[in-house]
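In the design runs reported in the main text, the only information available to the sequence generator was the tokenized backbone. The following block is the verbatim input for one such run; it is reproduced so that readers can re-run the procedure and compare outputs position by position.
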């Protein structure tokens, strides 16, 4: 949180007297969190993200946007994006009530426009991203997914969530028999 200081100066008959210095804190009216429903991933798995934006003020905010980088990271001079937004997966709740889906204007990065938060209200955005070929799958691999909330005259809010690669191998075994019929000997 940002802080400020204040001090008064009194001038009279050529004298100057300063008051004590007082310090205050600017409290943000909007706050946000971002979480992944499951905090691990594997190649091709789905990751569900939940963003909550809380308005603790007495004034509604309209026209907000959320921009999610889908875990983008630099590799040399290239930007790689390890998650793909799953089209049509967004759910938008205002104070727990499902609303019509806001406008998705881009999918990489994911940009969601038209978010409105009532006074003393909470909105929840839920959406799914699929892990693609750019996700680090090594034992200590992680994806840090960052979202920025802006617009509507607010100070930009940044939230992020880090998920880790699954530690075990994902194996499947299938068994078949050929030929499938055998004559008794």
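Verbatim output:
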């Amino acid at each position: 949180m940002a802080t400020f200081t204040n001090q008064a100066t009194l001038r009279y008959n050529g004298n100057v007297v300063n008051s004590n210095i007082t310090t205050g804190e600017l409290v943000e009216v909007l706050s946000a969190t971002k979480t992944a429903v499951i905090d691990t991933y594997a190649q091709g798995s789905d990751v569900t993200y939940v963003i909550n934006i809380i308005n603790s003020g007495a004034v509604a905010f309209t026209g907000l946007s959320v921009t999610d980088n889908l875990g983008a990271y630099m590799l040399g001079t290239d930007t790689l994006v390890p998650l793909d937004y799953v089209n049509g997966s967004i759910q938008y709740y205002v104070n727990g009530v499902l609303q019509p889906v806001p406008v998705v204007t881009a999918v990489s990065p994911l940009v969601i426009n038209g978010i409105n938060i009532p006074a003393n209200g909470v909105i929840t955005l839920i959406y799914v991203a699929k892990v693609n070929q750019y996700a680090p799958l090594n034992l200590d691999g992680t994806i840090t997914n960052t979202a920025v909330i802006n617009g509507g005259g607010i100070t930009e809010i940044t939230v992020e969530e880090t998920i880790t690669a699954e530690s075990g191998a994902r194996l499947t075994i299938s068994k078949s028999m050929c030929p499938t019929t055998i004559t008794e000997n």
